[in-house]
Structure formats: structure tokens, C-alpha cells
């Protein structure tokens, strides 16, 4: 990875791998645009047992995000499994540590999007995407979903919404991304990369 290129942060939580597969597809979409990179990061699980401590490096998937990953991104894609129609607690927990960035306006005017995975088709994909939109708006980010010019939105028999990409992972969380879901996740990453380059702040504009 080059230090000089801007990057889109793809920040996700995934317990059984479905949201991670989506994140990787968005990353491919981001990197299909020249001049920008994808940075994949995850967050640790949380536990009601306060003494629980996680290893500093996850056993699989992306490494954990720190605040600087978020501070310096040119765009942000947030991914979470649906949990009771809402984003998963580990992602919310991470977002609740970002008030320093909110106070400094670090994310103002940067583009953002969201993606999710569910076990059931009508199990709350849209509500989860909207639950992720709320903190992004508080940070002053510019939310971009998926336009219907992406024809897979009309054709999909699984996931895919105008609020963002989604995936029907099935009861055992083992249904792979189907063709429409793959196309939409890729298009979402590509669009976010395009917007990040378009909205990029000039050098020295700390805002
Ligand atoms: C606590 C909990 C709540 C869940 N709530 C929902 C839900 O509201 N709707 C749904 O369709 N699936 C729900 N699921 C299933 C997950 O959203 C689904 O398995 C998802 O694909 C997992 O993503 P992952 O493989 O990235 O962890 C829930 C799972 C857990 C553990």
C-alpha cells in the first residue's frame, strides 16, 4: 500500500464471515478506481463481562481500526451484521469512541456508505443500514446509497437496497454472495471511491 494515495476506510464487524465477504467485495470496487486505495479494518467484539480482553491482533480478517484510520480516510464504508434490526454492538461501541473526531469535524463533507448482512430476507436490512446512517450524519458525512441505475437493484432475489448493499446469508450464515449482491457491493465501493476523489479536500484544508 502506498503512503501517498488517499484511502477509503472499510470498517466492519463480522462474526461468521458474511459481512467480511461483503467488505472484501466493496474493497475490490474501491480499488477498481485508479488513484485511491481501500483500507479494511475491523473492531473487536464486546462482552457484558467487563474483564474480557481480546488479543491485540484478530485471529482472522482485517486488523482492528484505530482513530487515525478514521480521521485520515477520504471516505468511509461501515459494515455490520444485522442484530435485531440494528447495527451490532461492537461497531456501535467503536463509534462511541469517536467524539474527539466529531468535536474537530474530522469527517465533515467526506462521503460515507453502509452495508449489512442478515440471516432472513426481511429481517431488517434497511433498518440496520439506517441505524448506521445516523452517526455518519452526526459526523457531517455525505451519505451515498445505491442508485437504481445499478440494474441489479431491480433484479435481485436476495440482498441489495437503495440504502446500501446487503446480503442474505441464510439461516446458517453459509449462503455465498450471489451475482446481484456481488455486483451491488462492488458498485457501492466503486461509487464511494469516485465520490471520495471528487470531494477530496485540497491539501492544507483542515476545515
Ligand atoms: C444477536 C443476533 C441478532 C440477530 N438479529 C437478526 C435480525 O434482526 N434479522 C436477521 O435477519 N438476522 C439476524 N441475525 C443474524 C445475522 O444478522 C446474520 O447471521 C448475519 O449474516 C451474520 O453476519 P456475519 O457472518 O458477518 O457475522 C442476528 C444474529 C445475532 C447473533
Lay out the secondary structure:
Blueprint: E1 7-12, H1 18-31, E2 37-42, H2 67-71, E3 75-81, H3 89-95, H4 99-104, E4 111-118, H5 125-138, E5 142-143, H6 152-155, E6 166-168, H7 179-199
Parallel strand pairs: 1-2, 1-3, 3-4, 4-5, 4-6
Helix pairs in contact: 1-7
Flavin mononucleotide binds next to helix 1 and strand 4.
Pfam families: FMN_red
Organism: Halomonas koreensis
GO molecular function: NAD(P)H dehydrogenase (quinone) activity
Describe this protein's structure:
Strands 1, 2, 3, 4, 5 and 6 form a 6-stranded parallel beta sheet that branches. The longest helix is centred in the last third of the chain and has 21 residues, at 179-199. Helices cover 34% and strands 15% of the residues. The protein is an alpha/beta fold. It has one domain (7-199): Flavodoxin domain (Rossmann fold, 3-Layer(aba) Sandwich), CATH 3.40.50. Residues 14-20, 81-85, 117-120, 123-124, 169, 173 line the site of flavin mononucleotide.
Amino acid at each position: 500500500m502506498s503512503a501517498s494515495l488517499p484511502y477509503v476506510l472499510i470498517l466492519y464487524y463480522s462474526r461468521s464471515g458474511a459481512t467480511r465477504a461483503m467488505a472484501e467485495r466493496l474493497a475490490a470496487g474501491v480499488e477498481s478506481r485508479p488513484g485511491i486505495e481501500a483500507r479494511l479494518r475491523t473492531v473487536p467484539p464486546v462482552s457484558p463481562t467487563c474483564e474480557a480482553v481480546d488479543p491485540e491482533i484478530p485471529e482472522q480478517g482485517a486488523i482492528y481500526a484505530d482513530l487515525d484510520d478514521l480521521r485520515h480516510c477520504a471516505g468511509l464504508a461501515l459494515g455490520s451484521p444485522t442484530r435485531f434490526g440494528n447495527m451490532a454492538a461492537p461497531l456501535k461501541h467503536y463509534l462511541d469512541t469517536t467524539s474527539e473526531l466529531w468535536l474537530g469535524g474530522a469527517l465533515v463533507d467526506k462521503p460515507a456508505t453502509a452495508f449489512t448482512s442478515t440471516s432472513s430476507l426481511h429481517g431488517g436490512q434497511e433498518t440496520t443500514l439506517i441505524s448506521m446512517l445516523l452517526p455518519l450524519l452526526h459526523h457531517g458525512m455525505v451519505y451515498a446509497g445505491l442508485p437504481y441505475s445499478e440494474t441489479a437493484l431491480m433484479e435481485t432475489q436476495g440482498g441489495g437496497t437503495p440504502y446500501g448493499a446487503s446480503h442474505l446469508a441464510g439461516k446458517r450464515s453459509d449462503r455465498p454472495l450471489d451475482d446481484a449482491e456481488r455486483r451491488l457491493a462492488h458498485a457501492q465501493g466503486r461509487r464511494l471511491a469516485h465520490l471520495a476523489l471528487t470531494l477530496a479536500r485540497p491539501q492544507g484544508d483542515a476545515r
